[in-house]
Amino acid sequence: MILMSIRLNVVFMLSMFLFGCATPTKPDVYGETKVTARARSHVELGSAYYQQGKYGIALDEFNYAVQIDPSYGQAYNGLGLVHAALGEDAKADANFVKAIQVEPKSSESHNNYGIFLCDRKRYDESITHFLEAVKNPLYTTPNLAYANAGVCSARKKDIKNAEYYLSKALTLQPLTHSAATKLAEIQFNRGDLIDAKQTLQNALVASPNAETLWLGYRISRAIGDKDSAASYALQLRQQFPKSDETRLMLSGQK
After folding, report:
1. Does residue 127 lie within any of the structural domains?
2. What is the separation, in whole angstroms, between the first and last Cα of the chain?
3. DSSP bridge pairs for 7
4. Which of 17-21, 100-104, 127-131 has the lowest mean pLDDT?
5. Is residue 163 included in any domain, yes or no?
6. How far is CA 24 from the centre of its chain?
7. pLDDT at 143
8. CATH code, 51
């Protein structure tokens, strides 16, 4: 489940946060206290409302979870996401920090806070949190945190580390869309057209977005592959007629 995305040539990938648990004092058969189970149920509801853009109800649910179990970090993580979506940066920041304080090993909270920080141009801080996320051996999607570290490194013009993190993401999961797209863009801008074309194939396996098609169009034109370029152009016009990428293509920009 992707909870929020931030546009930077490629999208950031947020980690699912529903099932992180605080350390229980009297665990039931599912490994959590009844109090934590109640808090988790409200976090799950809050997440559902968050995805629907019903931020007011989502806030209520996350706040209920905090009231029920103040030690349940994922409730603060959810509050951080909602306040960030509402443009309430101070509240978002405070809640992400609280989420990490109560659950220091929560990869989801580190990843999501890293996205928040990178979007506010706090690049070095953000990358630190992405790398904290991948330290947890139980984190099921470390490729997403590495991809985000790569995207944020590219944002700060650190291309060497950007390539390293993006390649790491693709090594862990070759179909990491955001990593493949961004790495292909870096290769394209450097003139490594064949590598860029090959890398982009990983992003095209899943449903391509306007950005991926636009990059494919530019790579194909640079290589001289008119048929592929025409195919990308057709997909852009048909699937994303009002996108910025389609506008750029129709205006003749490269």
Report:
1. no
2. 34
3. 11
4. 17-21
5. no
6. 29
7. 96
8. 1.25.40.10
**CA pair distance 28, 143, nearest whole angstrom:** 32
Which of 177, 149, 152, 181 shows the shortest CA–CA distance to 165? 149
Closest-CA residue to 181 (of 212, 157, 221)? 212
Provide the pLDDT for residue 109: 96
Domain of residue 211, residue span: 207-254
Among 81, 105, 129, residue at a domain's last position = 105
Q: Which tens digits make up the pLDDT trace of 193-236?
A: 999 999 998 888 867 899 999 999 999 999 999 999 999 999 99
Q: Which of 105, 131, 166 is the last residue of a domain?
A: 105
Domain total of the chain: 2
Q: How far, in Å, CA of 17 to CA of 111, rounded?
A: 10
**In whole angstroms, how far apart are CA 197 and each of 172, 185, 204, 226?**
20, 9, 10, 14
Residue 194 lies in a domain: no
Q: In 3-state terms, what secondary structure has residue 11?
A: strand
pTM for this prediction: 0.86
Structure tokens at 5: 């995305």
Q: Is residue 178 part of a domain?
A: no
Cross-strand partners of 10: 8
Mean pLDDT of 104-126: 97
105 close to 136: Cβ distance less than 8 angstroms: yes
Helices (H), ranges, the chain:
34-51, 55-68, 73-85, 89-102, 107-119, 123-133, 142-155, 159-172, 177-190, 193-204, 210-223, 226-239, 244-250
Nearest to 158 by CA among 203, 127, 198: 127
Q: Are strands 7-8 and 10-11 parallel, antiparallel or unpaired?
A: antiparallel
The pLDDT of residue 30 is above 70 = no
pLDDT score for 204? 85
